[in-house]
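If you are new to this repository, start here. Below is one unmodified record pulled from the training split, so you can see the exact layout before writing a loader.
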Amino acid sequence: MIAQGVSHGEALLRRWLRMTELPEPLQVQLLAEAQESMLDRLEPFQAIEGLLLIATAHIWEDPSWERAAAALLRQRILLETTGSEDPDYISWFPQYIRTGVEKGALHPDLLRFDLERLARAIDPQRDALLPYIGLATLYDRYLVRDPESRQVLEPPQAMWMRVAMGLALAEADREAWALRFYERISTLRYLPSTPTLFNSGTPHHQLASCYVYEVHDSLDHILDAASAFGMLAKYAGGIGASVTRIRAVGAPVRGINGRSGGLIPFLHFYDALIHSINQGGRRRGTMAAYLEPWHLEVEAFLDLRRNAGDPYQRTPSLDTALWIPDVFMERVLADGDWYLFDPLVAGDLVDRYGEDFRRCYEDYIEQAERGQLPRRAWRKVRARELYRKILAALMETGHPWITFKDSANLRSMLRHAGVIHSLNLCTEVALPTNRDEIAVCNLASVNLVRHLRPDGRLDEAELARTVEIALRGLDNAIDLNLYPDERARRSNLLNRPAGLGLMGFAELMARWGLSFNDPEAAEHADRILEFLSYHAIRASVALARERGPFPRFDGSEWSNGRLPLDTLADVERARGRPVPVDRSCRGDLDWEGLREEVRRGIRNGTVMAIAPTATIALIAGTSPSMDPYFSNLFVRSTLSGRFVEFHPVLVEILRELGLWERVRERLVESQGDVMGIAEIPEPVRRRFPTAFQIRPEALLEITARAQKWVDMGISRNLYFAAHSPAELEGVYLRAWEMGLKATYYCYTMPRMRAEPATVAVNKSAQRPRWVEAVEAELQEGAACALNEACEACQ
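And here is the target side for that same chain:
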């Protein structure tokens, strides 16, 4: 009953205010601002939009406003999709599936499920697990829309069920597996990658995250590859491509008696192609070009991402990476010469690695010095000088990423299936390719924080169960996937690669009282990744007993009873020098027993890859992948907008200590850096460094300890408070020495600066003068746009 004198609009506002669960003083403040804006006179949709604007404008003041914004957005989505603030899913969900199929938004095979049984399992309370940024991202790009009107058709819980149903389509007991997938996904214990969330259960079921290919040295193949890249990008796949085979500028072109324009014009062409594809605004087309550093045009390649210079010699949308063999790093260490060759005369180097590459490369050097190669086809530089040029470009532009050819190949479990010519877009997928096979990988990531028990320890039994269910979902996706190219289908069915990763590692360490700088962080990374690897391999072995091993199992490292840990010795033998990585194991996992089971068959050629999880970690409300928090308070830019982010554990601790109100303004002024805030106790400050206050060596140790258990790769960003390339030299040499397969983005403090969390999207009408002053100090709008390309992976 509405109290006398209270309008219907005001009663509605008061009901929504209670749903926000704001503290009483903040509810009073929100109501006053709503009444001042006359929201009580608007239609419900407009009123709730107005409340959302007010709530988001205050997020920088107090995380309570973030939770209020999430509650309001939940109501907004429910009203739009179901017409009710508290829908009856048992009656609504079956009708949604039928309507979605009729409109062409959902796959007709979803009608084969017992929809009433699935509807009874939907738990609307799980919507509250989603943070505001996660809900906003889902609403903007993930929730299924009417193809004609573009109205959103599904709320989050229906989306999770739709994804689960799509993954269970080929199961004998569809409903049982759909319910298992739904339970794990809707509780955010794990999330499939973005393409799977976009497309599972829809008519366009392209579920794969990334594709890897190589471009051959003929105009026909360069154009054919462009067609393949365009179709892969159209269906939401991120692309990694080796371009080392393309002959250098000035090389002869048979048949026309002319000279080649070289590598760069073709990369400019690929850049324009990828830039033109944005997947309907949901996700940008994305591609990384990989080049080996012996290519004659490597120095021009280093300039591709620079802002200045000839625009036809630049690729602003194309990511670049170097595919570095051990020989180069050895010559850098020895301060030796490095020879560059035209692939037209040395193209077989592309298909060699390890000692085979070394012998062949040195043979080409001898031929060059003896005058047996055309003089235009080779050039000599100092290895260390080229290395410094690489690092200078890396500091300036974040490109090219530094990745390691020999480690990736020598540590591959699929060496018998061919050479790995590059990694994927985000540097974590390592799979062989050839002219007839485009490598494909499906990704999903376990959320460590959602497996914490009330006592703060990991619930390993639940974590093992999540790994088992996630692996099955990844294996199902291989058969269900819509392949834009037959070469991709062939490769994926032969190798059946799965890439299970993780997110929430930084949040977990913070909840355990650790900084990434603490040696214990690397110990935990080692033990956690060992556990995940053991159970991922075990789950794939169980699937092989049920469904058979992958077709290329015979001859793989798996078939010889080998495990990812064993491959460190292969790197050491090839280099003739030790790889400084701790080899210890937990002791409570039966690796020898599992080794014998692996000999008899494993379902997937690969089982693990640690992707960036840039987007799904936002949805899950935790830290991405194995990365640290960028800062303790910053603004993140995504395709869905700009959002304030707090380090949740720091805020909890400051509130427990009664310090939040006292230090909040200082935290904004310092852009999330707690080190100079004396009111915060020193042990707390030490626990919460920004990414730039973490030693790069500590990040490498964490990654190396994790990599020994991961059969593919780890996407590893590095952060430097550095002012010259010389300060980076030792770090990347150390990454190579430790046997890492790759590094990813290089962020340096002068270039990447966190913006105070008071940007226009979250500004209130009356802001304190100190906020204005902080904003006036900024010379560039450097809101954190970390890893926008990573959305192509996760």
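Two things worth knowing about this chain: The first strand starts at residue 190 and ends at 192. The radius of gyration is 27 Å.
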